[in-house]
Design goal:
The complex is a heterodimer.
Chain A: H1 7-22, E1 51-52, E2 58-60, E3 66-68, E4 89-90, H2 93-104, H3 136-154, H4 157-160, H5 170-185, H6 191-206, H7 211-222, H8 226-229, E5 230-231, E6 236-237, E7 244-246, H9 249-261, H10 267-274, H11 281-294, H12 299-308, H13 327-346, H14 351-355, E8 359-362, H15 364-370, E9 383-386, H16 398-403, H17 412-422, H18 448-455, H19 459-472, E10 500-502, E11 518-520, H20 521-530, H21 533-548, H22 555-570, H23 575-584, E12 590-592
Antiparallel strand pairs in A: 1-2, 2-3, 4-5, 6-7, 7-12, 8-9, 10-11
Helix pairs in contact in A: 1-21, 1-22, 3-7, 6-7, 9-10, 9-11, 17-19, 21-22
Chain B: H1 2-14, H2 19-22, H3 42-46, E1 54-60, H4 66-69, E2 94-101, H5 115-121, H6 154-162, E3 171-175, E4 186-187, E5 194-195, H7 202-210, H8 225-231, H9 233-248, H10 253-274, H11 302-318, E6 324-329, H12 353-358, H13 365-388, E7 391-392, E8 395-396, E9 401-407, E10 422-425, E11 436-444, H14 445-455
Parallel strand pairs in B: 1-6, 1-9, 2-11, 3-6
Antiparallel strand pairs in B: 2-10, 4-5, 7-8, 9-10
Classes of the chains: A mainly alpha, B alpha/beta.
Chain lengths: ~600, ~475
């Protein structure tokens, strides 16, 4: 591993690169990639007019580029970061699903809420507030879902609320409010909410609804109210600066629950918040570590993994081209990577450990897929098993490879683009509007590399594909399902593959510490990424975006990333400690108003 | 398993169609003009012209094969092109318009070829984010900050003008779900438009539009629990909306607009649920026919969806639910036309329609492409037939309707928005020419839509973005040649 003492210098570059690039987030890399793969709406944040950092040496130029003055602060530590903006946001479809499940267990399933008409997340992270602005379709879905939940709750009301087996008295109604409404609202109810709910109940009773039906109407109402559907943070304005809100204990519990579980605070978080024991960094850290312990395979791990690496929910592949790629294998491929990531986090692995993973949980389907001869399944059918040499490392996981491919063909463009953007924080520009009319005619049976050679000659295409393709072509040994192949597919002539790669010296990637480096194959790429400070600085940036659900937009955001990056370096890139660090920055327990 | 069955039964109950029976149960506590059970639209309907003017916009994706779509001659004696042949029965009541281009698409950078074309095809404006807050166009080098449409779409502009108070603004249906690239309908003031959602599932659409309506053949049995809950939904929504109002004032100022938008959607939903329908004249229950296993999102059922949507649109117009309806073929990549005879992908190596469109010069997929595009013609013909089968006044519903059939591209393979294929049906009571092919040269959708507004009695002289980048003028004068 490289010396970490040079991290500071590397940061200067990485920071300036990443923010300059973020205003040019690519919308869709493949002109016609399947809509769920790379589509990212261009919603670049507003760029501040030149702002000069007062004390940390962070300079934001009028074009949005951020640099950290190398001399600022000398050898001393960068001062801690402060609050960042966190506007009100609607819960995501996944959070909605989880919350309903937390409230009602498996007794009631909600109707679909996906609000398919909402905008895509520019950051790639689904919690982005602007990507959760509800449309008319979403409001209708929420209405339908609340109605169905209410209807289904009527006949099982005594299960949901045992006291309702007897005539519903005030105490029983209060129990409904505590067990369902206050939990759904993620904080104790205020008087107005209690009286609203009892009016709802009384009104339904007056309309001839039975007690159980009227209780169901309370649930129906609750599930459409902003207290449930929106993450609101009112906090307590700071005396010294009313534009900074210190979050309440319950709002911090809500942040922790959303960050780690994508759901409601669990009992322990609620207890701690009720007791006023959830606002100091130490208290927050203790809860964060507890959550990682209590929920070792919690959804955070899976969603973070999927959104960071742009993994598909389901890999759908051409049946004719890949007859062996059945449901069992598809599920196993996803589960393997999910387990790898969860283990890396819970066991304190570093980023380098993850990038160079050599032993993974395997089942028989995967052993067959990899051609592992001596597989010995454990009791649940899974066992930690050594990977064959041609499948080692995070980038050679079939889930990653298959997500960045079409149904029948590998995609060097998607693979190269994902590495550039998600590991090097080096986005490309966007696709020219007339790109389709510029697509060259490729000779018959061209290989991916030959096509790339032609495409890069196109003036409008070359600049980005120069960055993307030299990385992506090193993946050519892996087909659309991530299987190793020795030669190019027959449709491309079947010759031996050239998997030499290079990090370009043009575009945003030119500013990384590995610009101009050459390598061979995914092994070579992994080795290069493992030693790169630019990569070491990019991961905290990505995970910070996950945490705040947006692309960093101002100096305050950059300061947080800087702090996280330094923490990350200090722990030699421990993935678990990065998650903890995110809960420890001041931004996690505050909110800045944008005035 | 049990849950699924239960769920379906709730929906089935709601779809029985007995809104009239339940009238009054949902009386709102707020003094809103259009609430469930309160307002009877027949009162103002009586004061209106007997045969209101309607608009139907049909859109399919991926443009066309211009060579086989564009008639080779123009005027009244024109010959139908190969792709328009399935419409021959309607030749005397249709108008083919060629040579009209969508220029606004050129003023928006970014996007993947489809997004800007889809956003602008009915709005004739670029992205909302292509403008600075003061309304001036950003330079071409700048990326748009939002890919919503800047302006409202023509259907929504006309919906505002044609509908009576209390009517649903528009009925918007799609065959399969419309994806991100295919968002065509936008409502609201320039710079503040909101997407108008499509419904792809005909049963849901029925529930949404006709759910709870009492048709003469309905059995007046006591309402089910699902119906009683639905009938009270106005009251629930009152409470829900009041909670948005009270919460808004407690939040930091920057958070308030978000809740305002949500509350506005709730208000629209409440109005739609409360729309009264008078079952009289040609208004009857639209028959929804979906076979077992039907899933509206799956392409194998596209033709079934289409047939149901045609029925829903016909009855929405006949029952005067709304005066504007849109029908979109929502899947851009998707269509594989598995319901066509001897049409199984891969064809000539292509596993999807979109790839085929891109390579449209290649044989033999060009033949397959032709058949796909031809299918759209046959379905549009079916829609026109249906509208023409509904008696209205001395003629038919079609006489008071203009059907505009359009695509977001001309040459789809090139993702090119020049020479958009446009066919109109119906003459809007003698206002719009029919039986002709009018071949324009280098005119714009801005000009065409301006003329549509004029066809409905507007005095408009412009629509959409008038001047784009580099001073390119999109709006010269209306295309009044298409009017009688």
């Amino acid at each position: 591993m490289k010396e970490r003492s040079v991290v500071r210098a590397g940061l200067v570059l990485a920071v300036s690169v990443a923010l300059a690039g973020c205003t040019g987030e690519i919308q869709t890399l493949m002109l016609d990639a399947p809509e769920d793969s790379v589509q990212r709406a261009d919603m670049s944040g507003s760029v501040p007019d030149g702002v000069e950092g007062m004390d940390a040496g962070v300079v934001i130029s009028p074009d949005g580029g951020v640099t950290v003055r190398p001399d600022a602060g000398g050898e001393s530590e960068t001062p801690p970061s402060g609050p960042v903006t966190m506007p009100i946001r609607h819960i995501t479809p996944l959070q909605y699903e989880h919350m309903i499940a937390d409230l009602f267990g498996d007794r009631i399933a909600p109707e679909l809420f996906d609000d398919a008409d909402k905008n895509a997340a520019a950051s790639g992270y689904s919690t982005e507030p602007s990507a959760n602005v509800v449309t008319g379709r979403g409001v209708r879905q929420l209405f339908d879902s609340a109605e169905v939940v209410a209807l289904e709750s009527v006949d099982i009301m005594t299960e949901l609320l045992p006291c309702s087996a007897n005539p519903v008295d005030e105490a029983c109604f209060d129990e409904l409010l505590e067990r369902y409404v206050a939990r759904a609202f993620r904080r104790p109810l205020v008087a107005a909410e209690r009286s609203l709910m009892s009016e709802v109940y009384d009104e339904a009773r007056a309309d001839g609804f039975s007690e159980h039906e009227a209780l169901a109407v309370v649930l129906q109402t609750m599930l459409q109210m902003p207290q449930f559907l929106y993450v609101t943070e009112v906090g307590v304005p700071r005396a010294s600066d009313p534009n900074v809100l210190d979050l309440t204990d319950h709002e911090i519990a809500q942040r922790l629950a959303l960050f780690f579980l994508d759901s409601l605070p669990d009992d322990e978080l609620r207890r701690a918040a009720d007791a006023g024991e959830l606002h100091t960094p130490e208290q927050i850290e203790a809860q964060a570590r507890r959550l990682l312990r209590d929920y070792p395979d919690a959804s955070i791990l899976e969603r973070l993994l999927k959104e960071w690496l742009h993994l598909d929910d389901v890999l759908s592949k051409d049946r004719d081209a890949f007859p062996e790629f059945d449901q069992e294998l598809e599920r196993s491929i996803r589960e393997e990577t999910g387990r790898v990531f969860a283990q890396a986090i819970t066991s304190g692995d570093t980023l380098d450990d993850l990038l160079n993973i050599r032993r993974v949980p395997m089942n028989q389907a995967l052993a067959d897929f990899y051609g592992v001869q001596s597989f010995a399944p454990g009791r649940d059918g899974w066992a930690m098993t050594d990977l064959p040499a041609d499948h080692q490392g995070l980038l050679a996981r079939p889930y990653f490879l298959g997500s960045h491919a079409s149904s029948a063909e590998s995609s060097h463009v998607q693979r190269g683009y994902t590495v550039l953007k998600q590991f090097l924080c080096s986005p490309t520009g966007s696709i020219p509007p007339d790109a389709m009319s510029r697509v060259p005619v490729y000779p018959q049976n061209s290989t991916s590399r030959q096509k790339s050679d032609v495409l890069r000659q196109e003036v409008a295409c070359g600049a980005c594909h120069e960055m993307i393709d030299h990385i992506g072509l090193s993946f050519e040994h892996y087909d659309a399902v991530g299987s190793w192949r020795d030669r190019a597919p027959a449709s491309q002539g079947g010759q031996a593959l050239d998997v030499s790669g290079r990090i370009a010296t043009v575009g945003t990637v030119a500013d990384t510490d590995i610009a101009g480096e050459t390598f061979t194959g995914v092994d070579g790429l992994t080795a290069l990424l493992s030693g790169s400070d630019s990569v070491q600085a990019c991961i905290p940036r990505q995970w910070f975006r996950y945490a705040i659900g947006r692309v960093e937009a101002d100096e305050a955001d950059e300061r947080v990333i800087l702090e996280l990056t330094e923490d990350f370096a200090r722990t030699d890139g421990s993935l678990q400690e990065l998650l903890i660090s995110i809960t420890q920055v001041e931004a996690f327990r505050t909110r800045a108003l944008s005035q | 398993m049990k849950k699924k069955a239960l769920r379906r039964s709730h929906r089935a109950e709601l779809s029985l169609g007995r809104r009239g029976f339940l009238k009054g149960l949902g009386a709102s506590t707020l003094a809103l003009p259009f609430l469930f059970g309160i307002q009877d639209r027949s009162a103002h309907a009586q004061g209106m012209v007997a045969n209101p003017k309607r608009l139907v916009i049909v859109q399919h994706g991926q443009g066309t094969l211009l060579e086989q779509w564009t008639p080779t001659n123009s005027g009244a004696g024109y010959d139908l092109s190969p792709l328009l042949l399935p419409l021959s029965a309607h030749k005397d009541r249709m108008l083919v318009v060629s040579g009209v281009s969508n220029r606004a698409r050129r003023s928006q950078r970014n996007g993947n070829g489809h997004v800007p074309a889809g956003r602008s095809i009915l709005t004739a404006t670029p992205f909302a984010g292509s403008f600075y807050p003061d309304g001036t166009l950003r330079p071409e080098s700048e990326h748009p900050s939002s890919d919503n449409s800047y302006g409202p779409s023509i259907d929504q502009v006309l919906a505002e003008r044609l509908n009576a108070p209390g009517q649903r603004l528009s009925v918007n249906l799609s065959v399969q779900r419309s994806d991100h690239e295919n968002r065509l309908y936008w409502r609201g003031a320039p710079g503040q438009t909101e997407l108008v959602s499509n419904e792809d599932d005909p049963t849901r659409a029925f529930d949404d539009i006709f759910g709870g309506v009492m048709f003469p053949e309905d059995n007046p049995a006591p309402p089910t629990r699902a119906e009683r809950f639905r009938a009270r939904s106005g009251k629930v929504l009152d409470r829900v909306r009041s909670s948005y109002d009270s919460m808004r004032s407690q939040l930091p100022v920057e958070d308030r607009a978000t809740l305002e938008r949500h509350a506005a959607h709730l208000e629209t939903l409440q109005q739609n649920l409360a729309t009264q329908i008078d079952v009289e004249g040609a208004c009857a229950r639209p028959m929804i026919n979906t076979p077992d296993g039907y899933v509206s999102r799956e392409e194998q059922w596209a033709e079934i969806s289409m047939d149901n949507h045609i029925e829903l649109i016909a009855m929405s117009l006949a029952c005067d639910v709304s005066r504007v309806a849109t029908l979109q073929f929502g899947s851009k990549h998707g269509p594989r036309f598995p319901f066509l005879q001897n049409y199984t992908m891969p064809i000539d190596g292509y596993t999807n329609w979109h790839d085929m469109v891109h390579k449209q010069a290649d044989e033999p997929s060009a033949q397959a492409l032709f058949r796909g595009f031809e299918w759209y013609s046959t379905k549009v013909s079916q829609l026109v037939d249906r509208l023409a089968s509904i008696p209205e006044g001395d003629g038919t519903l079609l006489d008071n309707t203009l059907v505009v059939w359009i695509s977001e591209f001309g040459n789809g393979g090139r993702h090119n928005t020049d020479n958009i294929p446009i066919v109109c049906f119906g003459d809007l009571s003698g206002v719009v020419k029919t039986g002709e092919h009018i071949a324009f040269t280098d005119r714009t959708t801005n000009e065409f839509f301006t003329t549509l507004l004029r066809a409905y009695g507007g005095q408009d002289t412009t629509f959409g973005l008038e001047v784009g980048h580099n001073g390119e003028v999109y709006m010269n004068s209306p295309l009044d040649e298409i009017l009688v």
